[in-house]
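Hey, I'm writing a tutorial for new members on how sequence and structure tokens pair up, and I'd like a real worked example in the thread rather than a made-up one. If someone can provide the structure for the chain below, I'll link this post from the tutorial.
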Amino acid sequence: MPWTFRRALLTGLLGVLLASSASAQGTLSAKAPTTPPDGDLFQARLRYGAAIRSGSETDLGPGLSYSGVTPNDLAFAGWWWMLLGRHLGLTASVQREAFALYDDAGAKVTGGGLLRASVGPTGRYSLGPVTLEAAAGYSFAQLPVFGTIDTPSMTTQGRHAILLAARGLVELGPVIIEGRFEYPITVATTTPAPGASSSGLGAAGAVRVNLFRTGSLKWGLLAEAAWNRDTGTAENFAAQQSVLRVGGGLDLKWQEEKLVAKYARVSVRVTGAGAPLANTTVALSVGGARRDLVTDAQGQAQAVDVTPGALVASVEAPGFLPAEQRLETAAGQDVALTLSLEKEPPKVGALKVLVTSKVDGAPVVATVEWGGGTRSCDASGALTIAELPPGPLALKLSAPGFNPGEEAAAVVAGQTTEVKVSLVPEQKKLPATMTGQIRNVRGGKPVAATLEIKELKLRLTADAEGRFSVEIPGGKYTVKISAPKFITQSKQVTVRDGDQAIFNVELFPK
């Protein structure tokens, strides 16, 4: 390997590009980066090759033309993707060649150095294996100027331009094919001659083959061809040249290694009665550890990484019943949970009281009194009492022409319970109903005992189940209960007209 090439290779790897040689050379501004996957962070490219150059210059005399192949064409380029998910970044390139003009006898007539460089922002967008890039930045290029044919002496014409560039890349496994187009919009031209101007155009293609990987660094070989056409004019000359650069080089890509997934990714959405619930705390419990998330205005909590395994997601919100989900998660799994909360049932209930006459069932406009107030029924004998706490409630009822009545009701949260009450008219004396059951105190078996009511001279016998029922006028009575093999008992009973009295008796064996 020639010393000039070894020195250029080492210099390029250090990021400093120098080339000074007496032999003719041409270079290409190699700023066509491959667009790596999202893991790509940085790429550096060093290319070495030859330039096939042809050009001409027209001056006040007969002018001159030149052509030939020049070696030692060296370029270095780099890309750094660091913004918007690594879709935006910076790119820079530089190349330098030592250019010499020889006569037909092979003698050097004149020579000098030529430089091309560019820098600017760049962006990329991937569509499967195809990646598209665009860049716009500053570029600088030097073109050779030889004076006159009689006394040629090389100087340079410099072009400062805004460089517009487009690239397309296709990734086919370890092979990447790329194409590039460059168009400089000249801003200023510098030359020893007055009235100078310059323009240019460029296109390039390359093939990169990935060789191997060491950690995050991917090593590849590059084959590249680029074409540039440049023109320069001044008051006393017009020059143009075309350069085809071909060569190969080393291409390094820094691509972060994909980590083996260690966690599961969990996102949670909370709704209440079908609508998003904002500012609601969601508790995620995994292996005894708890993590709280808070939902945003859309009811969405930020996705978090959790240890794989049994996961419990629970949420509570005012006015809603608690909700909970349990599931198993695996490493690398993306889990989207939706916790739907139901409205909390009302914590109060209501009673609908219907009051009728016990004689004919006609509605009674009664006054109903309970622990929280007093209200009257409507013309249909109905009254609805709302906002009552759950539990038992005692009702007292009164109405003109009727005996007072009492009723026990049960209030159920979230429900309206119907309570029917019959009042007895004052003019009517309805018999009271006395019912009950007679049982053995030992074991509770029914006893077919005999009952005697002395005041009424009434005698009746319970059935085989020990049950009895009898209608008697309201009053105070002595009831005698007897049965063979049992101790006779006497009970004092007071009933009112229209009452329904329950009279249960337990007899002791002799």
